């Protein structure tokens, strides 16, 4: 039995410190994603798409409790009958700012929320952001999926935790810069192969200050094949996946049955 999902990944530039201009760009791409070509079932955006890494002013720029973002995503999802895996935003809470992903179902109901667990020191995240404290999961068309954000993909334990919880696909919004394209592609592919799951990863493109982002959003199947990959330009990357392939791969190479957890060191 097939379980097909049409995906659209919004690979966009992000103007650091300008949430209004980023929202306009996102709105235009979302409209294009649902009006041109075959309508997607689910749409994914990049990491921190509202503010970018304007970390020194992040307290002021962050969306308070994600209220504005949630209202907008919910209305769009309901109007167009589409799942939104809303990238991540700078979300302001009482105790600080989190790097948070929100997911909506086709009726505009919030079905998942995840705040980045591993903060990336090379971009000073740990100085300005609070770390989340639990893995992120959601159910899409009756199937479990996991959420991880950018640097999180360097931690195979997190992807494995989500796979053991039943996830058949992993959504990964990112702001992953040059010169680490090799790491990006290799780590995403490894997470797909070792967990026998789809990995759907949406990176930003363009330049912010002295940092350039290479795009290369991609969708990888549970065999580790890259079935769609963008270049460096702004684009909507479209792809159809069949979740039935996850069960097929897992039954051909029974990695989950062959695990020896009592022998693994986890701390
Ligand atoms: N925004 C991020 O988490 C970037 C992670 C990254 O670039 C890496 O190499 O890891």
Automatic annotation (TrEMBL):
Q: Which GO terms describe its molecular function?
A: hydrolase activity
Reading the lineage from the top rank, the first entry is Bacteria
SUPFAM superfamilies, per database record: Carbon-nitrogen hydrolase
Enumerate the Pfam families for this protein. CN_hydrolase
Transmembrane helix listed as a keyword? no
Indicate the segments annotated as coiled coil, or none if absent: none
Ordered alphabetically, the record's keywords are: Hydrolase
The residue ranges of the CN hydrolase domain are 5-243
PANTHER family in the cross-refs: DEAMINATED GLUTATHIONE AMIDASE (PTHR23088:SF27), NITRILASE-RELATED (PTHR23088)
Q: Which family does it belong to?
A: Belongs to the carbon-nitrogen hydrolase superfamily. NIT1/NIT2 family.
What is the protein name for this chain?
Carbon-nitrogen family hydrolase
